[in-house]
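User: I'm preparing a small set of examples for a lab meeting where we compare how different chains pack in three dimensions. I only have the primary sequence for this one, and I'd like the structure in token form so I can line it up with the others. Please keep the answer compact; I'll paste it straight into my notes.
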Amino acid sequence: MYYIGICDDEPIFLKCITEMTRDILTEAGIQHSIRTFQSAKALEDHLRIPGAAMDLLLLDIMMKERTGIEFACGLRAGGSQMPIVFITSSMDHVLDGYKAEPLDYLLKPVDP
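Assistant: Understood. Below is the structure token output for the 112-residue chain.
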């Protein structure tokens, strides 16, 4: 089972990315479980649950209360090596994001 977390504070993007991820994994025959979060706080609360780590985190950069970069840097500071793919509508913060050692970046709107 492949566990994926998707965090985006914009409901339309969260829905689109979730459906796209589900379709790709289903088509590839990969068993998966996708959890969605509309805020870094909700994601943080979930990750505090023992055993709640994910195999991949798709994380929006520009969120209201805390950026995805700040959140990812906090994960790294706590020792997490969880793979992170940043999702962004602007390339303005890409260089800042490298300090969180992301696996990759996706530009909105995401293309399958």
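A couple of notes for your slides: The beta strands are 2-7, 32-37, 56-60, 84-88, 104-107. The chain has a mean pLDDT of 92.

User: Perfect, thanks.
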